[in-house]
Amino acid sequence: MPRKTAARTARLASIPLGVAGRAVGGWGKRLVGQDADQVSAELSARTAEQLFAVLGTLKGGAMKFGQALSVFEAAIPNDMAEPYREALTKLQAAAPPMSSQTTHRVLAEQLGRKWTERFASFEDTPSAAASIGQVHRAVWHDGRAVAVKVQYPGADQALMSDLRQLQRFSRLFQALVPGTEVKPLLQELTDRMSEELDYRSEARNQRAFAKAFDGDPHVIVPKVVASAPKVLVTEWVDGKPLSSVIRDGERAERDRAGFLLAEFHYSSPARVGLLHSDPHPGNFMLTADGRLCVIDFGAVAQLPDGLPAAHGRMMRLALEGRSCELLDLLRDEQFIRADSRQQPEAEHVYAYLAPFVEPLESETFHFTRRWMQKQAMRVSNMRGQDFRTGRSLNLPPQYLLLHRVLGGSTGILCQLEAELPVRELIIRWQPGFAD
Predict the structure, then answer these.
(1) Exposure check for the chain: N or C terminus, fewer CB within 10 A?
(2) At 174, is the pLDDT very low, low, confident or very high (cuts 50, 70, 90)?
(3) What range does the domain containing 306 cover?
(4) Among residues 149, 136, 242, which one has the least CA distance to residue 196?
């Protein structure tokens, strides 16, 4: 894994450079008469292939970015999305693995030289790979099937290198989102992502979730068996990955997966005081008995008092069209900076936010790619008022992970094309909405 900033920056820079080179080649093909649609499809496929190769090799923060991006492919028009959908779905569950020799060295460093005595058997070929580690199937010495997550050597330096690069780009981000206070937002992102480097912290999070959901009829969280700073051993659970449900699941299966995912995210802060904050399909499975299995608790938001009641009040005010009260509440919660040059008007803020609470207008809502594409086009149209309004809004650091989860899980619901009673879940689990 490249660890130094210069090497990682060069790899990341290769993506836009590669895109530019292919675009020039594509223009040349069009000039000599090749079909424009065929050329565009070829460019998309090659760009997606490069994106997967570069981000997968880098792992660290770069791959985390790719995984986060993958849940938003539902917002891309269908005729452009397929190559990216395929490449980014691969990124959710696979990456070039480290060698068996390296894996054994890390296990010896973390579990002791006699680490093999802890296992009845250990499969050297990894069953899955993620941004900062890979997972091996094994059998614990007491006969339990376990998942062994081993952190890539150098993952800590790589992740911090990527985060430092983000910090260096803070002025660029500020220009792109002038209403947002970028530096504290990036600092919050750095703090939360750096916590993921210590698997003992992840083990504490997972133990808390496993205890709260023990015996739950809808959710299963694998129990932690052993942990070290760079190795985590948990019980093995078999299931159908959410990416497979997205690809070929039946309607009832899609709807159930969507409901269980939404219920898990909305209920967790009240039940555990924590929010699982890494919403991509690779972290969820449907088990044979119809439960949602949740894994990877490295990224977790601390919410000891549950979901913020102010967030529920925002939903209610937007749903009821109370634009002036909504604007005042957004100011109180620092979604609008007092020192911002762009002070939005109440009716513009309401028009920007109202479509996002459309799922709460009826008893059930059918999340679709078309609906998400419509929202993405609306807020990204540089000629529209919604684009200008969005640029005047700030994202307070304390809401960073909550909005990451809401955005990411909504993307998954749209990938699933799931229909579910989301209003019922909000009324039950979101403080402030029904008050």
Answers:
(1) C
(2) low
(3) 239-435
(4) 149
